[in-house]
Amino acid sequence: MASLKGKRIIVVGGSSGIGLGVAAAALERGAELVIVGRSGEKLKAAERTLGPGGRVRSLSADMTKEADIARIFDETGAFDHLVSTAGTPPPNDPIGQTDMDFVRRFVDNKLIGAVMLAKHGGRMLKAGGSMTFTSGINKDRPPVPGGSIVSAIAGSFGYFARALALELAPTRVNIVSPGWVDTPMWDELVGEAKSGFFAGMAARLPARKVATPADVAPAYLYLMESEFTTGETIRIDGGQNLI
Ligand SMILES: NC(=O)c1ccc[n+]([C@@H]2O[C@H](COP(=O)([O-])OP(=O)(O)OC[C@H]3O[C@@H](n4cnc5c(N)ncnc54)[C@H](OP(=O)(O)O)[C@@H]3O)[C@@H](O)[C@H]2O)c1
Q: Which of 114, 7, 8, 11 is nearest to 64 (CA)?
Protein backbone atom coordinates (compact mmCIF):
# COMPACT_ATOMS: atom_id res chain seq x y z
CA MET A 1 0.00 0.00 0.00
CA ALA A 2 1.25 3.49 -0.86
CA SER A 3 1.39 5.94 2.04
CA LEU A 4 -0.74 9.09 1.92
CA LYS A 5 1.84 11.04 3.92
CA GLY A 6 2.68 14.25 2.07
CA LYS A 7 0.37 13.35 -0.83
CA ARG A 8 -1.73 16.12 -2.33
CA ILE A 9 -5.41 15.17 -2.44
CA ILE A 10 -8.27 17.15 -3.96
CA VAL A 11 -11.69 16.38 -2.46
CA VAL A 12 -14.54 17.88 -4.48
CA GLY A 13 -17.44 17.95 -2.02
CA GLY A 14 -14.97 18.13 0.86
CA SER A 15 -16.87 20.89 2.65
CA SER A 16 -19.63 18.61 3.96
CA GLY A 17 -20.77 15.08 4.79
CA ILE A 18 -18.88 12.17 3.24
CA GLY A 19 -16.27 14.41 1.58
CA LEU A 20 -15.49 16.17 4.85
CA GLY A 21 -15.10 12.74 6.48
CA VAL A 22 -12.66 11.69 3.74
CA ALA A 23 -10.70 14.93 4.14
CA ALA A 24 -10.43 14.42 7.93
CA ALA A 25 -9.30 10.79 7.54
CA ALA A 26 -6.72 11.66 4.85
CA LEU A 27 -5.41 14.50 7.00
CA GLU A 28 -4.85 12.01 9.84
CA ARG A 29 -2.71 9.98 7.43
CA GLY A 30 -0.49 13.01 6.79
CA ALA A 31 -1.92 14.14 3.45
CA GLU A 32 -2.26 17.71 2.17
CA LEU A 33 -5.82 18.58 1.22
CA VAL A 34 -7.59 20.87 -1.19
CA ILE A 35 -11.33 20.85 -0.46
CA VAL A 36 -13.70 22.11 -3.14
CA GLY A 37 -17.35 23.18 -3.04
CA ARG A 38 -19.55 26.05 -4.17
CA SER A 39 -20.29 27.75 -0.85
CA GLY A 40 -17.43 29.77 0.64
CA GLU A 41 -19.22 29.67 3.98
CA LYS A 42 -19.33 25.86 4.04
CA LEU A 43 -15.68 25.71 3.00
CA LYS A 44 -14.62 28.04 5.83
CA ALA A 45 -16.65 25.99 8.35
CA ALA A 46 -15.01 22.81 7.05
CA GLU A 47 -11.54 24.35 7.38
CA ARG A 48 -12.38 25.16 11.02
CA THR A 49 -13.59 21.57 11.59
CA LEU A 50 -10.43 20.15 10.05
CA GLY A 51 -8.37 22.40 12.32
CA PRO A 52 -5.16 24.40 11.98
CA GLY A 53 -1.94 22.91 10.71
CA GLY A 54 -1.60 24.45 7.27
CA ARG A 55 -2.34 21.27 5.37
CA VAL A 56 -5.85 22.25 4.20
CA ARG A 57 -6.68 24.71 1.49
CA SER A 58 -10.14 25.42 0.17
CA LEU A 59 -11.25 26.43 -3.28
CA SER A 60 -14.69 27.56 -4.35
CA ALA A 61 -15.84 26.06 -7.66
CA ASP A 62 -19.04 24.76 -9.21
CA MET A 63 -18.62 21.41 -10.88
CA THR A 64 -21.43 22.08 -13.32
CA LYS A 65 -19.18 24.72 -14.92
CA GLU A 66 -16.32 23.49 -17.07
CA ALA A 67 -14.31 26.71 -16.63
CA ASP A 68 -14.52 26.26 -12.83
CA ILE A 69 -13.28 22.70 -13.11
CA ALA A 70 -10.34 23.68 -15.32
CA ARG A 71 -9.51 26.43 -12.79
CA ILE A 72 -9.40 23.91 -9.90
CA PHE A 73 -6.48 22.12 -11.57
CA ASP A 74 -4.80 25.33 -12.80
CA GLU A 75 -4.80 26.67 -9.24
CA THR A 76 -3.82 23.50 -7.40
CA GLY A 77 -1.12 22.35 -9.80
CA ALA A 78 0.28 18.81 -9.61
CA PHE A 79 -1.54 16.49 -7.22
CA ASP A 80 -1.70 12.79 -6.32
CA HIS A 81 -5.34 11.82 -5.84
CA LEU A 82 -8.74 13.19 -6.85
CA VAL A 83 -11.86 12.27 -4.87
CA SER A 84 -15.33 13.50 -5.69
CA THR A 85 -18.26 13.18 -3.32
CA ALA A 86 -20.04 16.23 -4.73
CA GLY A 87 -23.75 15.82 -5.22
CA THR A 88 -27.16 17.26 -4.48
CA PRO A 89 -30.37 15.58 -3.27
CA PRO A 90 -31.78 13.36 -6.04
CA PRO A 91 -35.18 13.63 -7.73
CA ASN A 92 -37.68 11.40 -5.93
CA ASP A 93 -41.02 11.96 -7.64
CA PRO A 94 -42.83 9.08 -9.36
CA ILE A 95 -41.77 8.94 -13.01
CA GLY A 96 -45.08 10.34 -14.27
CA GLN A 97 -44.57 13.52 -12.23
CA THR A 98 -40.88 13.99 -12.97
CA ASP A 99 -39.72 17.59 -13.21
CA MET A 100 -37.31 17.38 -16.15
CA ASP A 101 -35.45 20.60 -15.28
CA PHE A 102 -34.69 19.15 -11.85
CA VAL A 103 -33.53 15.88 -13.43
CA ARG A 104 -31.24 17.73 -15.85
CA ARG A 105 -29.72 19.75 -13.00
CA PHE A 106 -29.14 16.55 -11.02
CA VAL A 107 -27.49 14.76 -13.96
CA ASP A 108 -25.41 17.84 -14.74
CA ASN A 109 -24.14 18.03 -11.19
CA LYS A 110 -23.52 14.38 -10.46
CA LEU A 111 -22.62 12.70 -13.75
CA ILE A 112 -21.52 15.45 -16.16
CA GLY A 113 -19.57 17.02 -13.29
CA ALA A 114 -17.65 13.75 -12.81
CA VAL A 115 -17.00 13.52 -16.56
CA MET A 116 -15.54 17.04 -16.55
CA LEU A 117 -13.39 16.26 -13.49
CA ALA A 118 -11.97 13.25 -15.33
CA LYS A 119 -11.46 15.31 -18.51
CA HIS A 120 -9.45 18.06 -16.80
CA GLY A 121 -8.03 16.23 -13.76
CA GLY A 122 -5.70 13.95 -15.69
CA ARG A 123 -3.58 16.89 -16.82
CA MET A 124 -2.15 17.57 -13.35
CA LEU A 125 -2.36 14.09 -11.82
CA LYS A 126 1.05 12.69 -10.84
CA ALA A 127 2.23 9.20 -11.80
CA GLY A 128 0.75 6.59 -9.45
CA GLY A 129 -2.30 8.75 -8.88
CA SER A 130 -5.98 7.89 -8.70
CA MET A 131 -9.48 9.22 -9.21
CA THR A 132 -12.34 8.07 -6.98
CA PHE A 133 -15.98 8.97 -7.60
CA THR A 134 -19.10 8.31 -5.53
CA SER A 135 -22.20 6.35 -6.53
CA GLY A 136 -24.59 4.94 -3.90
CA ILE A 137 -26.96 2.31 -2.57
CA ASN A 138 -29.89 3.46 -4.70
CA LYS A 139 -28.53 1.55 -7.70
CA ASP A 140 -28.79 -1.69 -5.67
CA ARG A 141 -31.93 -0.93 -3.68
CA PRO A 142 -33.91 1.71 -5.61
CA PRO A 143 -36.52 3.53 -3.56
CA VAL A 144 -40.05 2.94 -4.91
CA PRO A 145 -41.56 5.08 -6.30
CA GLY A 146 -39.16 7.77 -7.47
CA GLY A 147 -35.87 5.87 -7.51
CA SER A 148 -35.41 5.30 -11.22
CA ILE A 149 -33.34 8.38 -12.01
CA VAL A 150 -30.92 8.21 -9.09
CA SER A 151 -30.63 4.47 -9.71
CA ALA A 152 -29.72 5.03 -13.38
CA ILE A 153 -27.14 7.69 -12.57
CA ALA A 154 -25.56 5.83 -9.63
CA GLY A 155 -25.50 2.63 -11.70
CA SER A 156 -23.63 4.32 -14.54
CA PHE A 157 -20.63 5.16 -12.35
CA GLY A 158 -19.33 1.58 -12.18
CA TYR A 159 -19.16 1.38 -15.98
CA PHE A 160 -17.65 4.86 -16.20
CA ALA A 161 -14.81 3.74 -13.91
CA ARG A 162 -14.23 0.45 -15.76
CA ALA A 163 -13.82 2.24 -19.10
CA LEU A 164 -11.73 5.09 -17.70
CA ALA A 165 -9.45 2.69 -15.81
CA LEU A 166 -8.44 1.28 -19.20
CA GLU A 167 -8.24 4.62 -20.99
CA LEU A 168 -6.31 6.51 -18.30
CA ALA A 169 -4.07 3.63 -17.16
CA PRO A 170 -1.83 3.60 -15.18
CA THR A 171 -3.96 6.22 -13.38
CA ARG A 172 -6.41 4.19 -11.29
CA VAL A 173 -10.12 5.01 -11.41
CA ASN A 174 -12.57 3.62 -8.86
CA ILE A 175 -15.98 4.13 -7.27
CA VAL A 176 -17.23 4.09 -3.68
CA SER A 177 -20.87 3.11 -3.24
CA PRO A 178 -22.05 4.08 0.25
CA GLY A 179 -25.27 3.03 1.93
CA TRP A 180 -27.12 5.56 4.07
CA VAL A 181 -24.71 7.98 5.73
CA ASP A 182 -25.77 10.59 8.30
CA THR A 183 -24.88 13.85 6.53
CA PRO A 184 -26.41 17.31 6.00
CA MET A 185 -27.94 16.02 2.75
CA TRP A 186 -30.42 14.04 4.85
CA ASP A 187 -31.41 17.14 6.82
CA GLU A 188 -32.19 18.80 3.51
CA LEU A 189 -34.07 15.73 2.23
CA VAL A 190 -36.23 14.73 5.21
CA GLY A 191 -35.63 17.32 7.97
CA GLU A 192 -36.83 16.27 11.40
CA ALA A 193 -38.03 12.89 10.13
CA LYS A 194 -34.35 11.86 9.87
CA SER A 195 -34.06 10.25 13.30
CA GLY A 196 -37.11 8.04 12.65
CA PHE A 197 -35.79 6.99 9.22
CA PHE A 198 -32.38 6.20 10.65
CA ALA A 199 -33.69 4.23 13.65
CA GLY A 200 -35.79 2.08 11.29
CA MET A 201 -32.86 1.50 8.91
CA ALA A 202 -30.39 0.77 11.75
CA ALA A 203 -32.70 -1.96 13.08
CA ARG A 204 -32.81 -3.64 9.62
CA LEU A 205 -29.16 -3.30 8.64
CA PRO A 206 -26.81 -6.23 9.30
CA ALA A 207 -24.35 -3.64 10.70
CA ARG A 208 -27.16 -2.41 13.06
CA LYS A 209 -26.25 1.23 12.56
CA VAL A 210 -26.48 3.96 9.97
CA ALA A 211 -23.00 5.11 8.93
CA THR A 212 -21.25 8.32 9.86
CA PRO A 213 -18.88 9.88 7.30
CA ALA A 214 -15.99 8.44 9.35
CA ASP A 215 -17.42 4.93 8.81
CA VAL A 216 -17.25 5.19 5.00
CA ALA A 217 -14.01 7.22 4.68
CA PRO A 218 -11.79 4.06 4.90
CA ALA A 219 -13.11 2.89 1.51
CA TYR A 220 -11.79 6.07 -0.12
CA LEU A 221 -8.45 5.76 1.72
CA TYR A 222 -8.10 2.17 0.56
CA LEU A 223 -8.73 3.12 -3.07
CA MET A 224 -6.08 5.85 -2.90
CA GLU A 225 -3.55 3.64 -1.12
CA SER A 226 -4.01 0.35 -2.98
CA GLU A 227 -1.77 0.43 -6.02
CA PHE A 228 -3.43 -2.67 -7.47
CA THR A 229 -7.12 -1.70 -7.44
CA THR A 230 -8.62 -0.08 -10.50
CA GLY A 231 -11.93 -0.11 -12.38
CA GLU A 232 -13.57 -1.28 -9.16
CA THR A 233 -16.67 -0.33 -7.19
CA ILE A 234 -16.47 -0.79 -3.42
CA ARG A 235 -19.75 -1.07 -1.57
CA ILE A 236 -19.58 0.21 2.00
CA ASP A 237 -23.16 0.01 3.15
CA GLY A 238 -23.42 -2.02 6.36
CA GLY A 239 -25.03 -4.81 4.31
CA GLN A 240 -27.83 -2.58 3.00
CA ASN A 241 -27.63 -4.18 -0.47
CA LEU A 242 -28.59 -7.50 1.17
CA ILE A 243 -31.84 -6.45 2.77
N1 LIG B 1 -25.52 10.59 2.54
C2 LIG B 1 -25.94 9.43 2.04
O3 LIG B 1 -26.70 8.67 2.67
C4 LIG B 1 -25.45 8.99 0.68
C5 LIG B 1 -25.64 7.65 0.31
C6 LIG B 1 -25.21 7.23 -0.94
C7 LIG B 1 -24.60 8.14 -1.81
N8 LIG B 1 -24.45 9.42 -1.42
C9 LIG B 1 -23.83 10.34 -2.37
O10 LIG B 1 -22.66 10.85 -1.79
C11 LIG B 1 -22.42 12.17 -2.26
C12 LIG B 1 -22.14 13.07 -1.06
O13 LIG B 1 -23.28 13.12 -0.25
P14 LIG B 1 -23.29 13.77 1.20
O15 LIG B 1 -24.37 13.07 1.92
O16 LIG B 1 -21.91 13.84 1.73
O17 LIG B 1 -23.85 15.24 0.83
P18 LIG B 1 -23.57 16.68 1.48
O19 LIG B 1 -23.26 16.57 2.92
O20 LIG B 1 -24.72 17.53 1.05
O21 LIG B 1 -22.24 17.16 0.71
C22 LIG B 1 -22.26 17.43 -0.66
C23 LIG B 1 -20.99 18.18 -1.01
O24 LIG B 1 -20.96 18.39 -2.42
C25 LIG B 1 -20.73 19.78 -2.69
N26 LIG B 1 -21.36 20.10 -3.97
C27 LIG B 1 -22.62 19.88 -4.36
N28 LIG B 1 -22.82 20.33 -5.60
C29 LIG B 1 -21.64 20.86 -6.02
C30 LIG B 1 -21.19 21.48 -7.21
N31 LIG B 1 -22.02 21.70 -8.25
N32 LIG B 1 -19.93 21.91 -7.29
C33 LIG B 1 -19.07 21.73 -6.25
N34 LIG B 1 -19.42 21.12 -5.10
C35 LIG B 1 -20.70 20.70 -4.99
C36 LIG B 1 -21.36 20.49 -1.48
O37 LIG B 1 -20.89 21.81 -1.28
P38 LIG B 1 -21.70 23.10 -1.87
O39 LIG B 1 -23.16 22.84 -1.62
O40 LIG B 1 -21.17 24.27 -1.13
O41 LIG B 1 -21.38 23.12 -3.30
C42 LIG B 1 -20.90 19.57 -0.37
O43 LIG B 1 -19.56 19.83 -0.04
C44 LIG B 1 -23.66 12.59 -3.06
O45 LIG B 1 -23.38 12.47 -4.42
C46 LIG B 1 -24.70 11.57 -2.65
O47 LIG B 1 -25.62 11.31 -3.68
C48 LIG B 1 -24.84 9.87 -0.21
A: 114
